[in-house]
Design brief:
single chain, 69% helix, Hypothetical Protein Yqey, Chain: A, domain1, 8 helices, mainly alpha
Length: 156
């Protein structure tokens, strides 16, 4: 019953009603449900990774006094974890690639480089040429900030 990283169709195994309930869960609830599934199916890679993510969520909740974190805050934790895993992949860790696939299943789909270039060209045509203004335009979008910065340097 794990996320898209565990099922080819991007759906949980089970009936249609279970899939609808799963999609309505908060990220924190989905991570907890997937942790239990990984635990029951003896998927140690997923279990260990999701355990670390759950631990970070609980630590932040405890330190800030928040009872339940928002999806936005959980996404920040996932983004930080993904960044760390990408660095591990660059150093040659094979296990990090599988872990990154698990984390990315919970994150929104990132804009492609072509989509970023297209938006950048539109912004340039609209008169936005300051890198700060460009980054501000992309702040709320699901993009890799590093790629936006590289494209901005090329296009502007």
């Amino acid at each position: 019953m794990l996320g898209a990283a565990f099922c080819a169709e991007g759906k949980r195994k089970g009936n249609k009603e279970d899939n609808i309930k799963y999609k309505e869960m908060t990220l924190k609830e989905r991570i907890s449900a997937d942790y239990m599934t990984a635990f029951k199916t003896k998927n140690t890679l997923a279990k260990n990774l999701l355990s670390v993510v759950k631990g970070e969520i609980q630590t932040i909740e405890k330190n800030t006094g928040v009872e339940s974190m928002s999806d936005e805050d959980v996404l920040k934790i996932l983004a930080k974890t993904a960044k760390s895993l990408k660095e591990s992949i660059e150093k040659g860790s094979d296990e990090a690639k599988a872990e990154l696939d698990i984390i990315e299943a919970y994150m929104p789909k990132q804009m492609s480089r072509d989509e970023i270039v297209a938006k950048m060209v539109d912004l340039k045509a609209a008169g936005v040429t300051n890198i700060g203004q460009v980054m501000k335009e992309f702040a709320s979008l699901p993009v890799d900030r590093k790629v936006v910065s590289e494209v901005a340097k090329e296009v502007l």
